[in-house]
Design brief:
Helix content: over 70%
Distance between the termini: 32 Å
Structural class: mainly alpha
Number of helices: 17
Radius of gyration: 20 Å
Largest sheet: none
Low-confidence stretches: 195-201
Strand content: under 5%
Mean pLDDT: 86
Shape: globular
Oligomer: single chain
Length: about 400
């Protein structure tokens, strides 16, 4: 914990702002699919708003990086907050009018805003002068997700209770707008740039094709893509399976999702230290093995205990894969190359997430929960192979 308190103010501000921004995602995981099931033309389209959210993140990954390079992280991130407020407004209108298209557009805008929040992790790494502080900085950023784990689903669940005369979930989007405004206020305490961010920025940059062919880029980028893709694939299917196919109530479904999101971010307290002690490759391997455990537990049954077990392991496995990959990525580029490499990395990661979200409902309603889990196995074996590759690189 003492390492956290030595971090510069920028990192603390970014951790708070990222967690508030991520409340949109955690709220949509609970609310988006359930609301869409009621107003969508077909139940198989229930994850379209969630898919639109991750598609928005994917298509905005490169433009967001270019905007931040052009205007700086301080001014460029205003575009993210504008998109976040627009998404909350569209979602509010969609609930008032039962507008499925409006709900999908809300998800798209919220996803585009998330592309800016995801860049905060790179800004945090640039805000520390000592590379040995990368682990604690990254851990603090992900620990901030614990706030989103509680606030986002609570916004979704309490929106109805606090605004009983309104259509279902309309109050949730109104509350989300307030949380987004709170993040905008907090972001005003972020410094414009840091010494490390501009260090050697005038150095000659390599061509992008020369960077992405190296194992230093391939391993973290593919590891992150698999981690995010598989997590989204299973997480987005969980509320649909629990509520629509197994008949669990909203409270039980909300608690499982909250528990999963806590499991995503709570290990950040120590996963940075694990990377420093054992290496990123071994931490990524642990994440891949935990993902395989998700499938094994899920195949045993569809009782509440099975959903709890699978989703908790899914959260910890995601943390290990994502932390390991993010810690490795800065080793693949020089300061002058950072924006374009970060953009390509996020395009791969959130492109995989978008594909997973688009196909999740189809798998659930066509092949069932067990079919969805079995479809994950070949990709999880690839994640284990990438982790083994990194372990051998670290040992050589």
């Amino acid at each position: 914990m003492t390492s956290f308190f030595k971090l510069p103010r920028n990192v603390w501000v970014l951790a708070l702002c990222q967690s508030l921004g991520m409340c949109a995602t955690t709220m949509m995981v609970l609310v988006g699919g359930l609301l869409a099931t009621r107003i969508a033309p077909s139940p198989k389209l229930a994850t379209v708003p969630l898919a639109a959210l991750v598609v928005g993140t994917a298509i905005m990954a490169v433009p967001a990086a270019l905007l931040l390079r052009r205007f700086g992280r301080k001014r460029g991130s205003w575009a993210g907050y504008a998109l976040g407020l627009l998404g909350a407004g569209l979602g509010f209108l969609g609930t008032l009018t039962d507008g499925f298209v409006l709900l999908a557009l809300a998800g798209l805008c919220l996803g585009m805003a998330a592309a800016f929040w995801q860049q905060f992790r790179f800004a945090a790494l640039e805000s520390v002068a000592d590379a040995r502080q990368h682990g604690p900085a990254l851990s603090l950023l992900l620990c901030g997700g614990l706030l989103a784990a509680f606030v986002g689903p609570e916004i979704g669940a309490r929106g109805d209770a606090w605004f009983p005369g309104w259509p279902g979930y309309a109050g949730a989007f109104l509350l989300l707008g307030g949380v987004t405004l709170g993040g905008l206020v907090a972001f005003q305490f972020f410094y414009r740039e840091t010494a490390m961010a501009v260090q050697k920025s005038g150095a000659a940059a390599r061509h992008l094709s020369a960077i992405i062919q190296k194992p230093a880029f391939i391993i973290p980028a593919l590891g992150g893509a698999i981690g995010f893709g598989m997590m989204t694939f299973i997480m987005h299917a969980t509320p649909l399976t629990m509520r629509e196919m197994c008949g669990f109530d909203l409270g039980s479904t909300k608690q499982v999702i909250q528990g999963h999101i806590v499991a995503m971010y709570l290990p950040s307290v120590f996963s940075g230290g694990l990377i420093r002690r054992y290496g990123a490759g071994r931490v990524m391997m642990a994440g891949a093995l935990l993902y395989i455990g998700v499938v094994v537990i899920g195949l045993f049954g569809q009782e509440l205990v099975h959903f709890w077990g699978s989703l908790l392991l899914l959260g910890v496995g995601w943390n290990f894969l994502f932390m390991g990959g993010t810690a490795l990525l800065p080793k693949s580029y020089a300061p002058a190359e950072r924006f374009k490499v970060q953009a390509v990395n996020d395009l791969l990661v959130f492109g995989a997430q978008a594909l997973a979200s688009l196909s999740s409902a189809w798998f659930v309603f066509t092949l069932g929960w067990h079919g969805l889990l079995l479809g994950c196995l070949p990709i999880l074996l690839l994640a284990a192979a990438l982790s083994l590759w990194q372990i051998r690189r670290e040992e050589s």
